Amino acid sequence: MPGKRATRHFLQLSEFERGLIIGMKTAGRSTRRVAGQVDRSECAVRNCWEQWTRKGTHARRAGSGASRKTTRRDDRMIVMQALVDPTVTRSTIRADVGVAIFKETISRHLAEENLKSKRPFRALPLTREHRQLRLQW
């Protein structure tokens, strides 16, 4: 399946794959041959090998993003609150979690679990017939 290979092409190399690449390159195999056997791009194989020869390690660098403010337990608590009461607000969830996080963070956690916001109606939606009856009254 060509689609699967294309998506796999851009995933991060696992530790096992990095070790496999280094082993095959050390054995004298070409970059193209290694890339074909590991099912990765030649560029990925070349970068892994260069990192090994320059730095002597194949471990990935730490990410540059901000550190997490919530634990996995906090994340589960956010989702559980939304499941128990679908009309709960983000402000209420934030206060219950007890961690200083943005409301957008809560929305992102809920979106990851495919939960949509459910707000109660201010008023019942009126059909065309309801409107006409109301006008006649």
Give an account of the 3D structure.
Helix 2 packs across helix 4. The chain is elongated. The chain is mainly alpha-helical and 137 residues long. Helices cover 60% and strands 0% of the residues. It is built from eight helices and no strands. The chain has helices at 2-9, 15-26, 31-38, 42-55, 72-84, 90-97, 103-112, 128-136. Residues 75-137 form the Transposase Tc1-like domain. It is found in: Nucleus. One of its GO terms (biological process) is DNA transposition. This is Transposable element Tcb1 transposase. InterPro entries: Homeodomain-like_sf, Transposase_Tc1-like.
Mean pLDDT: 83
What is the N-to-C order of secondary-structure elements (H for helix, E for strand)? HHHHHHHH
Strand content: under 5%
Poorly predicted residue ranges: none
Shape: elongated
- Structural class comes to mainly alpha
The count of strands amounts to 0
**How much helicity do the residues have?**
55-70%
- Helical stretch count? 8
Largest sheet: none
Beginning-to-end CA distance, first to last residue? 65 Å
Return Rg in Å: 26 Å
InterPro entries: Homeodomain-like_sf (IPR009057), Transposase_Tc1-like (IPR002492)
GO molecular function, one term: DNA binding
Protein name: Transposable element Tcb1 transposase
Subcellular location: Nucleus
